Amino acid sequence: MEEDWAITLDNMFPNLTDVELRGGYTSHSTGNGSGAVETLVEYSGPSTKKLLACAGGVIYDASAAGGSTSIATGKSNNKWQTVMFGTAGGNFLYMVNGADAPVYYNGSAFTTPTLSGVTATNIVQVIAHQRRLFFAFNDSLVFGYLPVNQLAGTVATFDLGGLCKKGGKIQSLASWTRDGGSGPDDIFVAITSEGEVILYSGNDPSSATAWLLVGASFSIGKPIGRRCVEVVGTEVIVTTQDGAIPLSTMLPIDRVGAAGKALSDNIQNAFIASARDYSTNFGWQSIHYPQGSYALFNIPINSVTSNQYVVNTQTGAWCQFTGQDAACWTLFNGNLYFGATTGGVIYKADTGTSDSGGNIEFTIKPAFNYFGRRGVNKLYNLCRPHFTSNGAPGVAIDLNIDFSDVAPTSIPSATTLNAALWDTSKWDQANWANNINIADWLTVYGIGDCATPTIRGAEKALSIKFSAYDMIWQTGNAL
Prior knowledge:
Layout: E1 6-10, E2 12-14, E3 19-21, E4 26-30, E5 39-44, E6 49-55, E7 58-61, E8 66-67, E9 69-72, E10 81-87, E11 90-96, E12 103-105, E13 110-111, E14 115-116, E15 123-129, E16 132-137, E17 142-145, E18 153-154, E19 156-159, E20 170-176, E21 187-192, E22 196-202, E23 211-219, E24 229-232, E25 235-240, E26 243-246, H1 247-250, H2 255-260, H3 268-278, E27 285-289, E28 294-300, E29 306-312, E30 318-321, E31 326-332, E32 335-340, E33 346-348, E34 360-366, E35 378-389, E36 395-401, E37 436-438, E38 442-448, E39 451-459, E40 464-475
């Protein structure tokens, strides 16, 4: 591992020149049932945006901060897949869940479309592609589609079974643009539960000349969950048991080659271990958050606890977020929100310096360093981490020698920021907080060839950036 990398970055996001304590979260909306909020989605019309939440068999309007309003009831499943779709009649949010009849929302009311030719309650996935709605069904290798620019009507079907050598079912669908916009060159993507990828070009599956097979049976790891696909620019990222795989780097190579080109390559061991241990849990989801310059992969540890693997989309550097127990994520007005695993609460993420008033615990463990003298034992006795903060963060530090894994067992109490608050304190009568550089020598001890510190802390009032550390050591004599 290169010396400017890190072994652990928990709740510290890697910027271009430093790592920064992640933003906190605050309660946005309560009253969304009493359990997990399993779907959050934005309705995005020309002049209206709404935040919808699904929990306890109810769909809520959670747009306004505070309490949510029930707008649809009697649903048997809260795990909806959705897409925005525009027709001459307006802009609609189309919603399917594989148990209830599909519905669409126009910003003020729901409509249940009349769909013939298929069992509508079996529709579990929906995408918009080439001005059509395409559907995947429960436990099937058949996909369906509607006429151009239609929300209802006869659903035609197309069977992929003859192309799928491993069997299974359609796990997810995607529309892949290669030039960043919607156009005739967009590719239809079907991904099976066994990790086979089928690609078609064209706009009419009923026509042999207007629907051409581009590729079949390309193999990736098995996709995890229904929400396994995220579009980032011109790339389609698939969350699989082999990691987060960009389609452009996978085709047309085999599964082993695909894993070697995974977006998650730098954290591949951790990602694969999480997939192995938690892939059957509900809550796997990826989401691109442009405002934060990152993509997030939600990892449901159990029904209550979730962590997130987070990648800087500018640099490809990774970190882990903890303490955000999310069942689902969405963007609303460009901001990041998550539905909690308990309590029917929706939180606004990446805001403030605390987790709903609680501490944000962080850990930094840089890569091991030989300090220019590889093969020589050294006595390490002082370490100086460099922080930039609007206060004096309390940190605990321990030294790791020769690839050991030692972390401080106690975390200092969070710092209280005694500084002025904007729009609250009076000019000329308050002390305004400024970012300052903090570089204090801390005592450490260890004898070995290479070393690195593990730095831990917990804060709920400060912004913190870490940029470097210095080490003082003495060279031992050769025996």
